[in-house]
Write a structure and sequence with these properties.
The protein contains 10 helices and 11 strands. The chain is of the alpha+beta class and 305 residues long. The protein has 2 domains: 96 residues, 2-Layer Sandwich (Phosphorylase Kinase, domain 1); 195 residues, Aminoglycoside 3'-phosphotransferase, Chain: A, domain 2, CATH 3.90.1200.
């Protein structure tokens, strides 16, 4: 995990927040937070306001993804009603530390993977999730790409094709020759698998259990309090919907409610296979071969079509 091998003490954390947030604050306690698969995530408790700060921490200088997330959070909060934490500061290479910090609001609740909901509570959660994404996906524009930049790409494949090709190149040696050939042929005809028919739609892009904060004080009536790891971008909306399915974040209750406003287009199930394969290949080279069997199964399904 990025962030291992170094430590942040209360003195250093205090110096950083005094320079970037509030000159009168003192960090009184530091504790790790669950869920960060790429970066170390900590809670810094203070003696003032805000009483708690979430800190993403990296020993690397100038983490562009930290700056992008900081600006994305600001953009979401100013341009949409999509619930995300308030960003406080993005700090890199201070006089105290050469790494990077993203400091943000500590929102109420726990991530979806940690909460305990009743059956009624899960249905309520799925309906809330649908309502939030119905609203988010009402935001469209003329081109694809970062919401932080006015200009983008006119074709979705100009963004997605390089992504899936890169993921394939980084892990293809794990496939046998037959499966490598199947994926190569699919990539050669990607415009047939993913025809251009949608509008560039505002998406989160990484919605799964760990990135959804839920207040479960009442397990029958939970409330979504925020979405984490947000990078505002305009994409083909099926990219988001497929991702919701691959880790079982959204169920039939979600899709029943969501599709009343945003119906699924014919062939969605087929196109999901491409998006799922992209996600699983990414996970193989990021996190290891534990995801390889899922990749192989998806390639075999694609080969049969």
């Amino acid at each position: 995990m990025d962030g291992e091998g170094f430590s942040i003490d209360k003195r250093l954390a205090t110096a950083i927040i005094r320079d970037s947030i509030n000159a009168s604050l003192t960090v009184t306690a530091i504790s790790p937070l669950h869920g960060g698969m790429i970066n170390r995530v900590e809670e810094w408790q203070t003696d003032g306001n805000p009483p708690s700060i979430v800190a993403k921490v990296s020993p690397e200088k100038d983490r562009r993804d930290f700056f992008d997330e900081y600006e994305s959070l600001r953009w979401y909060r100013s341009q949409t009603s999509f619930p995300v934490p308030e960003p406080y500061a993005c700090v890199s290479e201070t006089k105290y530390f050469e790494g990077s910090f993203l400091l943000m609001q500590k929102v109420k609740g726990s991530n979806l993977g940690q909460v305990h909901l009743t059956a009624n509570g899960m249905r309520s959660f799925q309906e809330q999730l649908a309502d939030v994404l119905i609203d988010l996906h009402n935001h469209t524009r003329r081109n694809y790409g970062s919401a932080l930049q006015a200009k983008g790409k006119n074709r979705w494949l100009d963004i997605f094709a390089p992504q899936i090709e890169s993921n394939f190149s980084k892990m293809k040696e794990h496939f046998d020759p037959h499966r490598r050939d199947t994926v190569s042929k699919m990539l050669d005809h990607l415009d047939e698998w993913l025809p251009e028919f949608g509008l560039p739609t505002l998406v989160h892009g990484d919605i799964w259990a760990t990135n959804i904060m839920v207040d479960d004080a009442n397990p029958d009536m939970p409330s979504i309090t925020a979405f984490l790891d947000s990078h505002a971008r305009f994409a083909e909306v099926e990219y988001e919907l497929a991702y919701l399915r691959i880790f079982h974040t959204a169920d039939e209750t979600f899709f029943s409610r969501y599709t009343r406003c945003h119906p699924l287009l014919e062939g969605f199930e087929r196109r999901c296979l491409v998006y799922w394969l992209n996600t699983m290949m990414l996970h193989v080279w990021l996190f290891g071969t534990g995801y390889l069997q899922a990749c192989e199964q998806l390639v075999d399904k694609i080969a049969r079509l």
